[in-house]
Design a protein that fits this description.
The complex is a heterodimer. Chain A is α/β, with parallel strands linked by helices. Chain A has 3 domains: about 150 residues, P-loop containing nucleotide triphosphate hydrolases (Rossmann fold); about 90 residues; about 140 residues, no CATH class. Chain A is about 45% helix and about 10% strand. Chain A is built from 20 helices and 8 strands. In chain A, the strands form 2 sheets. Chain A has a 5-stranded parallel β-sheet with strand order 2-3-4-1-5, sandwiched between helices. Chain A has a 3-stranded antiparallel β-sheet with strand order 6-8-7. Chain B folds into 3 domains: about 230 residues, Rossmann fold, CATH 3.40.50.300; about 230 residues, no CATH class; about 110 residues, Arc Repressor Mutant, subunit A (Orthogonal Bundle), CATH 1.10.10. Chain B has 29 helices and 10 strands. Classes of the chains: A alpha/beta, B alpha/beta. At the A-B interface, helix 4, helix 5, helix 11, helix 13 and helix 14 of A face helix 2, helix 3, strand 1, helix 5 and helix 6 of B. Chain A: It is found in: Nucleus.
Chain lengths: ~450, ~650
């Protein structure tokens, strides 16, 4: 039962349709409608809407603006790699391409305001114009004056225009140091389990009854609700696994109403989906193919993260090992590990107060190139000439992101690096060259 | 050309066009070539051989890539066809962007060829819309967008770039950033799909939309943020635009998960494609180019070892391996006048008759030929020695060339045969790969090798069915060359297994002994074998540090000025300042007193100027010398031989050892 939206400015039928399109978001939609007022009325300059992913922010805005036929421009901030694009899209949807083409190359905010005013005086607004900005959190990375200016654009352009910012984070993280006009805040809470159930049950399969599908959604939510509340993702998972759910039905083993048997059939399958296709270890295409295959063959498919083996040239392996040692051993201990006659030095003598925590917990430390090469020459078993290809291997390791360069690119003299591979990875690499890395690690002494 | 600038500076003058007289390849080849008269012929031989090697490797590469490329093409076709489905499940599914993760191995430069043929194949058979991008040209999102759009639309796209704006503000008031939007490829896209324009896949008559494929050549090098934003933007249009990604991955597929958070990777439908490992690739290349008698040009053990170790130890690059082969080929034909004989048997026999007198003299002086003559002389005292006279000499050479070709013809089948037998033995006494066995055989008599003896012992212990299977495979290899062996074995098939086994192995042993002798033992091997491993190593595996030390120790080596020539390895007084300073610093300990160093330097330089040792000025430090010294010292510091130290005032620390 959908609650009625009530507003004096719009026809009953339209509001009815809007309400049907926005299940479980009636409160927010009603709130927005009352904020927006009647079309010709002047509206509040800026509204800030926040809520998690897939909580219906864009959807509500789209439905409201489209169904009520209000003049609007929707801009996604990811796409606006420059402010020019943003201005252009706004002008384009309000005044047509004539206005957009008036913008100079790399326009400033005042260019935008000037052109807006110019056109707005020719075609004054009869209704409130809306600018919807999706992923507004990216506005924080643009020019410092853009966000404050947008918030009071109504004043600047002297037009009945409202900015609606949609974001996943709260307004407190937006507020500039210099202060700005405060928008109206509106929160979209997460859908509750019941609401998710209600929304998901709406897209029932045409050849099955609504109750049947609803019971399927119920089972699905029972498995996935604890890890995922993203509506989009849940809908995707529901579509992927529905055919498996219907399998016993098609074989004639169970009736539609026998929920328990259906549950027993689908539950292990969904658990498996949670570990594979939900994490994108297995693509949805592969998942669908798997369902058609026999149970036995399923084990053969390995997820993406199972492939971690990397083949490297012999010296690259040792360079990586040397880098790992340099990153995780304190430089003082190099003498102990790589000098032939280091004498007896026990770990306790070495220990400094702040080094009691494991270096592996602290993460890799930067090291200079000299130290890397010194360790490399002492761990590699044969005599290696310091050739150009040794050095070029270091930079290829950097491009492969197995090492990261810490110093600035411009610094040619004594560059610094960090090792970016995991313990497991380096152990696997060391095994292939018969190098016992554990013996050389200070943490495992 | 002059500059009217008052300030000091560095000016670049581009050479005028007329000076650029381009020399042909052949001129370069003949320049400084040994024995110029035959250089033309050698150049042609060399080039023919190289062309053949090149085309053969290209064919090989295509064959190797075919499988993975075919499955990729299938994937793209499948993706673009499933998109059209309108059943319930595909409607409810979130539309993901189909993504192929193509794992190609760590040697990134080798991937270029694969991507080249991939995008060609895609364009031929799947879609005209293919754009490939590299990380280095896409530092920011707008650059990535620009490249993608440029390549899809085939035109230039202007981006509002900070640098350009000043210059163009007046000339182009109409700015173009409208172009800079993903949806702009729609017009291009739709135009190509109109029925009027025929695509190369007319077999399907449904109006299927060809996908828009974007290839990221080196995924690891991309800025993760840029990639994430790009995927987010693309996913906004996936319903209208059939986009598809191909990720070129050098390390492992788990990089995708390291780079992309779940919110982004959930927009992709990733399928994995693993290419052939580069070691397998190399094995195939060696099999086709080295282990065959079709190419008369050969590498000796050391050169092959150098090329192989560069591959295995340094770069894993098949392309570089072939480059190395090319270098050896060029060097051989350039430096060895007798390489005119390094060609097909028929041509070689012809070329023998056309050898000049000096070339024949060269043959006489070849070490292998001298050995041959000595054995001949020992065997027959008078009769045969006549044959070595000038007229019959060419015939003898022809005979020897024939022998060499016969040796090669038999060598490779027997090598493979031995490898089939030994490669399945426990602990691989003669190597896992056929190239290892080849190296052993090239170096010395393989049958004298201890590992060979153990291998033979192990073979005698094999079970019947295993041995028979192995022998069967050997027979298959040997079939074309040695039919007679085949028959002798068949005839005795009924006799007891042990006798037969021993005989078979005996036979194999004899084969090895007669055919797998190292090439050095064969007369005229110098014609075909390139031996200068040092040259190859110097060219391919540069050692900057050794070069610097060589330059500092003996400047004559690089500067070729007679005044710098010295006998005993010492540095002449007139050497460049830095060489003198370097030589002097070698005599010091770990810490060097700068003043002592300066004085020593001044003395040496005064001697070079020819000042009278008794005069007052001798060895005195004047301003110019002081300045020169300081420059030399700072140059040494720049090269990393010394550094300043706080341990002692007026001292610098040495960073190298030895030399005292």
């Amino acid at each position: 039962m959908t609650k009625m939206l009530q507003h004096s400015g719009y026809e009953e039928e339209r509001l009815q349709r809007v309400a049907e399109l926005l299940p479980c978001r009636e409160v927010q939609a009603g709130m927005l409608l009352s904020l927006m007022g009647q079309p010709q009325q002047c509206s509040y300059p800026s509204i800030f809407i926040y809520g998690h992913r897939a909580s219906g922010k864009s959807h509500v805005m789209q439905v409201l603006l489209k169904e009520l036929e209000l003049p609007h421009a929707t801009v996604s901030c990811v796409e606006c790699v420059s402010v020019a694009l943003l201005f252009e899209q706004v002008l384009l949807s309000f005044f047509g391409c004539d206005a957009a083409s008036l913008l100079p190359r790399s326009p400033s905010l005042s260019d935008f305001v000037r052109i807006y005013r110019q056109h707005c005086s020719q075609t004054p607004a009869k209704q409130t114009r809306y600018i919807v900005m999706e992923k507004a959190e990216l506005l924080r990375d643009t020019d410092a004056n853009l966000l404050p200016a947008l918030l009071r654009l109504q004043e600047l352009v002297d037009d009945n225009v409202t900015i609606i910012l949609l974001s996943e984070i709260v307004w407190d993280k937006f507020r500039p140091n210099t202060g700005c006009f405060e928008p109206l805040l509106l929160h979209f809470p997460d859908y509750s389990k019941g609401e998710l159930q209600q929304i998901l049950s709406q897209d029932k399969h045409p050849s099955y009854s609504a109750e049947f599908y609803s019971s399927y959604i119920n089972i699905l939510l029972g498995v996935f609700y604890s890890v995922c509340r993203d509506l989009r993702e849940l809908r995707h998972l529901a579509a992927l696994n529905f055919s498996k759910f219907c399998e016993p039905l098609a074989e004639g083993k169970v009736k539609e109403t026998d929920t328990h048997k259906l549950w027993r059939n689908i539950e292990p399958h969904l658990k498996k989906a949670m570990q594979t296709v939900y994490l994108r270890e297995v693509s949805s295409l592969q998942w669908e193919q798997l369902q058609q295959m026999e149970e036995r063959e399923c084990g053969a498919l390995r997820g993406l993260s199972a492939h971690t083996h990397v083949e490297l040239p012999y010296y690259s392996k040792f360079l990586l090992i040397a880098a790992y040692l340099a990153s995780y051993n304190p430089a003082r201990t190099d003498k102990r590990f790589f000098l032939k006659h280091h004498g007896k030095i026990r770990k306790t003598n070495f220990l400094k107060k702040n080094e009691k925590t494991s270096n592996h917990l602290l993460g890799p430390k930067p090291f200079p190139l000299d130290r890397l090469l010194a360790i490399f020459y002492s761990v590699v078993d044969s005599r290696v000439a310091p050739t150009a290809s040794i050095f070029s291997q270091i930079s290829s390791l950097v491009t492969l992101q197995l090492l990261t360069k810490v110093s600035h690119d411009d610094q040619l003299d004594a560059p610094k690096y960090k090792c970016a591979v995991s313990m497991d990875f380096i152990c696997a690499i060391s095994r292939t060259v018969n190098f016992e890395i554990i013996k050389y690690l200070y943490d495992f002494l | 050309m002059s500059t009217s600038s008052v300030s000091k500076g560095c000016f670049v003058f581009k050479p005028s066009a007329k000076k650029k007289k381009t020399l042909s390849l052949e001129d370069h080849f003949s320049h400084g070539c040994e024995s110029a008269e035959s250089s033309e012929k050698r150049f042609k031989l060399c080039q023919d051989l190289w062309d053949k090697i090149k085309s053969d490797t290209e064919v090989l590469q295509d064959d190797l890539n075919r499988k993975i490329l075919d499955s990729l093409l299938d994937f793209t076709r499948k993706c673009s066809s499933t998109r059209q489905l309108s059943d319930w499940a595909s409607q409810m599914r979130a539309s993901e962007i189909p993504t192929a993760a193509l794992v190609l191995g760590v040697n990134v430069p080798d991937h270029d060829m694969t991507f080249q043929s991939l995008s060609e194949l895609l364009q031929q058979s799947v879609t005209p819309h293919v754009a490939s991008v590299q990380a280095k040209e896409c530092g920011a999102l707008k650059h990535l967008m620009k490249r993608v759009l440029e390549r899809l639309m085939g035109t230039d796209v202007t981006v509002d770039d900070e640098e350009e704006e000043e210059a163009e503000q007046t000339s182009t008031p109409l700015h173009k950033s409208v172009d800079f939007h993903l949806l702009n490829i729609f017009p291009v896209f739709q135009k190509s799909n109109t029925p009027g324009k025929k695509r190369s896949s007319p077999s399907r008559d449904d109006p299927q939309q060809p996908p828009v494929v974007i290839i990221f050549k080196d995924l690891e090098a991309f800025n993760p943020k840029v990639l994430q934003d790009f995927i987010l933007i693309c996913s906004r249009y996936i319903e209208r635009l059939p986009l598809m990604f191909i990720f070129g991955i050098a390390t492992s597929p788990s990089t995708i998960q390291h780079m992309l958070p779940h919110s982004v990777s959930s927009l992709l439908c990733i399928e994995l494609f693993q290419s052939l490992s580069c070691t397998q690739h190399l094995a195939t290349v060696i099999d086709q180019l080295i282990l065959t008698h079709h190419f008369p040009f050969k590498l000796n053990a050391k050169v092959l070892q150098v090329l192989m170790s560069i591959f295995l130890y340094h770069d894993f690059s098949v392309r570089n391996f072939i480059k190395g082969l090319q270098l050896a080929l060029l060097e051989h034909f350039h430096s060895q006048p007798l390489s005119v004989l390094c060609c097909k048997k028929k041509d070689a026999l012809l070329n023998v008759m056309q050898l000049s007198h000096s070339d024949l003299e060269r043959i006489r002086n070849l070490p292998s030929f001298k050995r041959y003559r000595n054995t001949q002389l020992n065997a027959h005292t008078s009769k045969e020695s006549n044959a070595l006279g000038y007229f019959c000499f060419q015939e003898v050479c022809q005979k020897l060339i024939k022998g060499l070709h016969k040796y090669h013809k038999n060598y490779y089948p027997v090598l493979r045969c031995l490898h089939t037998l030994t490669s399945s033995l426990p602990r691989y006494p003669l190597g896992k790969q056929v190239r290892e066995l080849h190296l052993i055989c090239l170096e010395k008599n393989v049958w004298e090798n201890e590992d060979y003896q153990t291998a033979m012992k192990l073979l005698r212990m094999l079970a019947k069915d295993e041995l028979v299977a192995l022998l069967q495979r050997c027979v298959e290899i040997l079939q074309p060359t040695l039919l007679e062996m085949n028959e002798s074995r068949r005839a005795k098939k009924l006799s007891p297994f042990e006798v037969l086994r021993n005989e078979a192995l005996e036979f194999l042993d004899n084969l090895v002994k007669s055919h797998l002798s190292p090439p050095e033992s064969h007369t005229l091997n110098e014609v075909c074998y390139y031996t200068s491993s040092a040259t190859v190593r110097r060219h391919l595996n540069a050692t900057p540090r050794t070069s610097i030390q060589a330059a500092l120790n003996s400047p004559y080596y690089y500067l070729q000025n007679d005044r710098l020539k010295t006998v005993d390895g010492s540095v002449s007084n007139s050497a460049p300042d830095i060489c003198i300073a370097y030589k002097l610093h070698l005599e010091c300990g770990r810490l060097i007193n700068l003043y002592d160093w300066l004085e020593a330097y001044a003395t040496v330089v005064s001697a070079a100027e020819g000042n009278n040792p008794d005069s007052d000025n001798y060895g005195k430090v004047e301003e110019v010398k002081h300045a020169r010294f300081i420059r030399a010292v700072s140059e040494l510091e720049f090269l990393g031989f010394i550094k300043s130290t706080k341990q002692k005032t007026d001292h610098v620390a040495r960073l190298t050892w030895g030399g005292c």
